[in-house]
Amino acid sequence: MQAMLRRRGGSTIRVLSSALSLACLTTSLHAHAETTLYIANVGGSNEQLYRQKVIPPFEKAHDVKIVYVAGNSSDTLAKLQAQKGHQQINVAVMDDGPMYQAMQLGLCAKVDDAPVMKDLYPLARLGPTAVGVGMVATGIGYNEQAFRKLGLPAPDSWQGCSPTNA
Q: What is the extent of the structural domain holding 65?
């Protein structure tokens, strides 16, 4: 599952590096036979962070070359479907919806047990073939003064933000 990690500094790097390590340790890779790993994940600032801070030390530590395949989760799912039976992507980081689809379509290998698995929260265990690497939360923000001026109560649920309730 792809999530926008909001931590800063070394903590983010450790989380991302652990996620990549977990993914590489837990997929059926034949790591000794392969020297190049294809990692599918989102682009933008996330891609830059991986390319600058996570991938180089990981490549050095594990004597592998990583090719970063940037795209959104739907693109990655489509690539996995097109490659079914002849997978080229070794690790796919996707949002939970497309990840659950990939799991249902049998596109994910069983996650092997590894020492890092004991550090996962139960919520991150999506099933036998996928783990979550982050979480996103959504909240309600509103202009208290504008609501008061219009005589509206403070929203306490998404339903309270509906135009039919205004």
A: 10-131
The total number of structural domains that make up the chain: 2
Let me know if residue 4 belongs to a domain: no
The pLDDT value given to residue 129: 92
What are all long-range contacts of 5-11, with beta carbons under 8 Å and residues at least 24 apart? 5/134
Question: How much of the chain exceeds pLDDT 70, in percent?
Answer: 77
Evaluate whether residue 40 is within a structural domain.
yes
* Mean pLDDT score across all residues of the chain: 81
Q: Which residue has the higher pLDDT, 162 or 125?
A: 125
- Determine contact, residues 51/68, Cβ cutoff 8 Å: yes
Measured between alpha carbons, how far apart are the two ends of the chain, in Å? 36
Tell me if the pTM is above 0.85: no
Q: Which residues of 137-158 are buried (b: 16+ CB within 10 A; e: fewer)?
A: eeeeeeeeeeeeeeeeeeeeee
In contact, 15 and 7? CB cutoff 8 Å? yes
